[in-house]
Specification:
The chain is of the alpha/beta class. The protein contains nine helices and nine strands. Strands 1, 2, 3, 4, 5, 6, 7, 8 and 9 form a nine-stranded mixed beta sheet that branches. β5 and β6 form a beta hairpin. About 40% of the residues are buried.
Length: about 240
């Protein structure tokens, strides 16, 4: 009965062989689970089988799989499929597996789809690494993704690009910030984006602890938040 008192947070995962050399997905998922459990959430990992439960799976998956991408196809498809998985399970909070809480945060929700992150590496543009929506809102986003014309994006498009282009209405907050953002002291959660870690000479799951130590050393004014995350991950091997 423990979990009944805590909100649920979802992430989406599919095996992507092309990214296996970039980071250890299982290790990252374990760290994600531990961090959100420590923040009094119930973490749940969704997979393609959840997306396949939606009645529009066949049409949706066929449509988005044909959209051009410079990323590995399996990875790009997963970025689209997670939205349909959220519609299939009833909506709620969706997080990337590299987003970790810096406190026992309870995000404010709105009547619109809510996106809680901006990326300072890309001009503080919208980053859908932490989202909240209803079933109808997730379905609306999926409908817009599926209706995207390949002619409009001959080389590359993604769910992030489409959201930045205004494919669906949403409310933008700045509660989740990217590792390295100078405003990190105001963040309620941190996004350990691969590009941001590489900018500091770090890699993904194996170096999240190192990134946390750098934060403790460089941002003493917000160290209580980082200490929270360090404690949450204290049982994860370095």
């Amino acid at each position: 009965m423990f979990f009944l008192r805590h909100p649920v947070i979802y992430t989406y995962h599919e095996e992507c062989p092309a990214l296996a050399e970039v980071y250890d997905a299982e290790r990252l998922l374990d760290m994600w689970r531990r961090a959100w459990l420590a923040a009094y959430w119930q973490p749940v990992v969704l997979t393609r089988s959840d997306a396949e439960r939606h009645p529009q799976w066949d049409v949706f998956s066929r449509s988005v799989s044909q959209l051009p991408s410079t990323n590995p196809r399996h990875y790009e498809n997963a970025c689209y499929f997670r939205w349909l998985a959220m519609a299939a399970i009833g909506g709620g909070f969706l997080s990337d597996a590299d987003v970790f809480p810096l406190s026992s945060w309870r995000p404010k929700t709105a009547r619109q789809l809510s996106i809680y992150s901006v990326d300072y590496l890309e001009g503080h543009a919208t980053c859908p690494c932490f989202v909240h929506g209803t079933v109808a809102q997730y379905e609306q986003v999926c409908e817009r993704f599926a209706a995207t014309s390949k002619a409009e994006f001959p080389n590359h498009v993604s769910d992030q690009i489409l959201l930045r282009r205004g494919v669906a209405p949403f409310r933008l907050r700045r509660d989740v910030l990217t590792y390295g953002d100078p405003r990190l002291r105001t963040a309620r959660a941190i996004h350990f984006k691969t590009d941001s870690l590489r900018g500091f000479g770090l890699e993904k799951a194996a170096s999240v602890r190192s990134a946390i130590q750098q934060l403790l050393a460089s941002q003493p004014t917000s160290s209580w938040r980082v200490q929270f995350l360090a404690a949450a991950l204290s049982m994860v091997d370095s």
